[in-house]
Design brief:
The complex is a heterodimer of chains A (202) and B (252).
Chain A: E1 2-5, H1 12-21, E2 26-29, H2 32-37, E3 40-43, H3 49-58, H4 61-70, E4 75-78, H5 80-83, E5 86-89, E6 95-96, E7 101-107, E8 120-125, E9 127-128, E10 143-148, E11 150-153, E12 159-164, E13 168-175, E14 178-181, H6 189-200
Parallel strand pairs in A: 1-2, 1-3, 3-4, 4-14, 5-7
Antiparallel strand pairs in A: 5-6, 7-11, 8-10, 9-12, 12-13, 13-14
Chain B: E1 5-13, E2 16-21, E3 24-28, H1 32-41, E4 47-51, H2 56-72, E5 77-80, H3 86-94, E6 99-102, H4 104-108, H5 111-120, E7 125-134, E8 137-142, E9 147-152, H6 153-163, E10 167-172, H7 184-193, E11 198-201, H8 207-216, E12 222-225, H9 227-230, H10 236-245
Parallel strand pairs in B: 1-4, 1-12, 4-5, 5-6, 6-7, 7-10, 10-11, 11-12
Antiparallel strand pairs in B: 1-2, 2-3, 7-8, 8-9
Helix pairs in contact in B: 1-2
Classes of the chains: A alpha/beta (202), B alpha/beta (252).
Chain lengths: 202, 252
């Protein structure tokens, strides 16, 4: 059973549907006991860093996720959920993240050249940086769907894959059993389903 | 490299897909859920759902259709139509929408853009704009292209992007439904004015129209169309194959 953390930030619906599509059981929950009983956790996220980080703290879910991560349970953050895994986010100010993967979330405008549009919206291809069980069903060059204006920086050791958008932007990262995907696997068609399947089988 | 997106648009009224020719003579096409599945399998990069009903029952029906579609379709879904408040954003996001496009709602209350961008992020807020030439300038029209707002379109779009719109759909009323090609002049003007992704809408009649669009407006991000896909005049597969042959970056 996969716990999809419910902390008042959208996007839970698509994620739940896509997990059902690959035959994985999932529950949308903010109940510590339910989460403890699940063998995997997904932290979704659509929106702004500050608002999401606050909701995560206020719902008590920040502590729960940290505790489960310390216990070695596989956890995947998606999009903003991935960004929240890092130490700090610099979106409309400076905000604390969960600190489960070392690095900071910065505006992509810091690194991409003039003429590239922001947000980085659309289908872009994955370049692998490290071998990962998360990629066991996909190939380098497969397309996944991105929607973001911020990216995980200062995290070279954790980077699993990048995508090229005028600069190399972190597409996926991991620290032990904590994973993060900047793209949306639940919105990346067949390729995305394969990544979710791999996570479920970790 | 990011690919150029091909986006079928489904105008939904009372749970069915319709397509207006110059926003009139609405004709019934098929079930949005079935169409969404077909498009996903044929390689559509994204789907846009416009709720063109005004009634409460129509809205409820739309929400149900959206929910069912999002349960079965795993590519991005943008939803528009009847978005007037942050509560409306919340309603469609909960049904599985990924992005929300706002048109007349932003004209009535531009503050909705900033408010939604703060809550959901800029990338979630899509400005949709119906534009028509009036007296030598591009003019913003409201209420599905019925009312001339008197506002100059490029300035309006720049203002909305400044407030937090993360993407812009430009629908040329002048070329919509005519199938004579996209409004290259209008789209070029918008692409030059803003740095967020721009989606071209209105006027596609054949594959060549998309090729012309991506060639003549290289900074355009996506081409959106409805009836030519719905009636099978252009297959997304053929279109994408042709784009690849022409050297246009495309996901296949």
């Amino acid at each position: 059973m996969i716990a999809i953390i419910d902390y008042g930030v959208g996007n839970l619906f698509s994620l739940k549907s896509s997990l059902r599509e690959i035959g994985a059981e999932a529950v949308v929950t903010a109940d510590e006991k339910v989460i403890a009983g699940c063998d995997r956790i997904i932290l979704p996220g659509v929106g702004a860093f500050e608002d999401a980080a606050r909701k995560l703290r206020e719902s008590g879910m920040a502590d729960v996720v940290k505790k489960e991560a310390a216990g070695g349970k596989p956890i995947m953050g998606i999009c903003l959920g991935m960004q929240l895994m890092f130490d700090k986010g610099y979106e409309y100010g400076e905000h604390e993240g969960l600190g489960l993967i070392h690095g900071n979330v910065r505006p992509i405008s810091d690194v991409i050249p003039e003429g590239y549009k922001i947000p980085h919206i659309g289908w872009n291809l994955l370049k692998f940086r490290k071998e990962s069980p998360l990629f066991k069903y996909i190939e380098e060059g497969d397309y996944v769907y991105f929607v973001h204006s911020y990216y995980a920086a200062d995290c070279d050791d954790a980077v699993l894959s990048v995508t090229e958008y005028g600069a190399e932007l972190t597409a996926a990262a991991a620290n032990g059993s904590v994973y993060g995907c900047q793209f949306h696997p639940e919105k990346s068609g067949k390729v995305g389903m394969k990544i979710l399947k791999a996570f479920v089988e970790l | 490299m990011i690919t150029k997106r091909i986006i079928p648009c489904l105008d939904v009224k009372d749970g069915r897909v319709v397509k207006g020719v110059n926003f009139e003579n609405l004709g019934d096409v098929a079930s949005p859920v079935d169409m969404a599945r077909i498009y996903t399998d044929s390689g559509a990069d994204e789907l846009v759902f416009y709720d063109i009903t005004a009634s409460a029952e129509g809205r409820k029906l739309f929400t149900e259709i959206l929910t069912e579609t999002a349960s079965n379709v795993f590519i991005p879904l943008t939803v528009g139509g009847g978005i007037n408040s942050v509560a409306d954003f919340d309603r469609v996001l909960k049904c599985g929408a990924d992005k929300v496009s706002v048109n007349s709602g932003a004209i009535r209350n531009p503050g909705i853009i900033t408010e939604a961008a703060k809550l959901y992020g800029d990338q979630c807020v899509v400005l949709s704009c119906d534009i028509k030439r009036v007296g030598g300038e591009f003019r913003v029209f409201a209420r599905g292209g019925r009312d001339d707002t008197g506002m100059e379109a490029i300035e309006w779009i720049k203002r909305c992007v400044g407030m937090g719109a993360g993407e812009v759909v430009v629908n040329s009323i002048d070329t919509d439904g005519v199938k004579g090609g996209f409004d290259i002049e209008m789209l070029d003007a918008v692409c030059k004015a803003v740095s967020v992704p721009v989606i071209a809408s209105g006027g596609a009649g054949c594959i060549d129209d998309f090729i012309e669009l991506f060639r003549k407006v290289p900074t355009i991000d996506a081409g959106l169309a409805a009836s030519i896909f719905h009636f099978g005049e252009v297959s997304i597969e053929d279109l994408k194959n042709r784009m690849a042959e022409e050297g246009i970056p495309v996901r296949r």
